[in-house]
Amino acid sequence: MTEITATEREMGTAFLPRFDAQGLLIAIAVDSRTREILMVAYMDEAALAKTRETGLAHFHSRSRGKLWLKGETSGHFLRVEEIRVDCDQDALELRVRPEGPACHTGATSCFYRRLEGDGLERVEA
Amino acid sequence: MTEITATEREMGTAFLPRFDAQGLLIAIAVDSRTREILMVAYMDEAALAKTRETGLAHFHSRSRGKLWLKGETSGHFLRVEEIRVDCDQDALELRVRPEGPACHTGATSCFYRRLEGDGLERVEA
Fold first, then answer.
1. What is the 3-state secondary structure (H, E, C) of A19-77?
2. Can you say where in the cell this protein is located (chains A, B) (predicted)?
3. Between chains, do B91 and A85 touch, taking CB under 8 Å as contact?
4. Domain count of the fold of chain B
């Protein structure tokens, strides 16, 4: 197999996801309507395949070391409407329709606090 | 030093960034006006400190193994207006004002292609 060049990966039309040394890609889930960033997690090859196959966001849990269907316990699935890939194909943007709060804390988005001075302040997204 | 509990990290007002085993956090840069995701990269403790100190996004380059001021060669700095942190404090959302295209390819955003079938299609962001 020939080496994939940086130019092919960056400018081409072939989807050539670049998993890191741990076999992972970054996946950022964004609400397709509000454009709010809901959460960020990792995908391995299996999670990416399952996401494409089912249309529901799957990730790889680093702490549990396994495939994780987002919403499998809460019912708060993320329906994937579009997948974008970055220049070097090591990160994905998932444009999703969330079926409930994306954060396990009950917040719409995991990014519910902002840095204010040296502390955090809760924000409404 | 006492252990930080998950509840303190998730619900508290203390900024307690959680660097991974490689000493890194995910940092997502978003255009504060358009809400477009511009790029995603990693920050180590030094990159985070420099970003907070200067107001310009700094990252840690995994490939070069060093601190990287975004825009240091291109002049396309990202001026950080707000920093949000996610529930478990291992990822940051930087709301920025970009001084030029964020992507080294010249695109506004690194996420300039979407998955369409098995290939990629260029999109205007």
1. CCCCCCEEEEEEECCCCCEEEEEEECHHHHHHHHHHCECEEEECCCCEEEECCCCCCCC
2. Cytoplasm
3. no
4. 1
Domain contains B12:
no
Query: Using alpha carbons only, how large is chain A's radius of gyration in Å?
Result: 16
- Cβ of B11 within 8 Å of Cβ of A105? The answer is yes
Name the one residue in this structure whose structure tokens are 């030094």.
B46
Q: Would residue A61 count as lying in a domain? A: yes
Instruction: List the domain range (segments joined by +) for residue A116.
Output: 17-122
Report chain B's terminal Cα–Cα distance, integer Å: 47
In tens, the pLDDT along A1-49 reads 567 888 989 999 999 999 999 999 999 999 999 999 999 999 999 999 9
- Nearest-Cα residue of chain A relative to residue B63: A20
CB contact under 8 A, A115 and B84: yes
pTM of the model: 0.95
Within a domain: B4: no
CATH number for position B95: 3.10.20.810
Q: Residues of A comprising the binding site?
A: 86-88, 90, 103, 110
B26 found inside a domain: yes
Q: Is the pLDDT of residue B112 over 60?
A: yes
